[in-house]
Design brief:
86 residues; mainly alpha; 5 helices; elongated
């Protein structure tokens, strides 16, 4: 899906000159906000951004979002931890 919106040219130029990837920044902001609104899961957020679960946690912390796992996600985390247990 492609989303298109306009921002003032001077803002775009300044941010691009600073090396900011506006497309990635907008995608990340939208997806984090959808997670914050409980419209997507932690797993969906990570998959959409190509992140593992730990990097997804870091991203959420960076955005000041509390980690909220559904019961299914929590159970998947527990099962995953049991697999790596020595």
């Amino acid at each position: 899906m492609t989303i298109h919106f306009e921002i003032p040219k001077d803002i775009e130029e300044r941010l691009r000159a600073a090396g900011i990837d506006l497309t990635q920044m907008a995608k990340e902001a939208l997806l984090v906000d959808l997670y914050r609104q409980h419209k997507i899961t932690h797993r969906q957020l990570g998959e959409a951004l190509g992140l593992d679960r730990f990097d997804t946690d870091v991203l959420l912390k960076h955005h000041g979002v509390e980690l909220e796992l559904s019961l299914d996600e929590f159970n998947a985390e527990v099962a995953s931890l049991r697999e790596v247990k020595p």
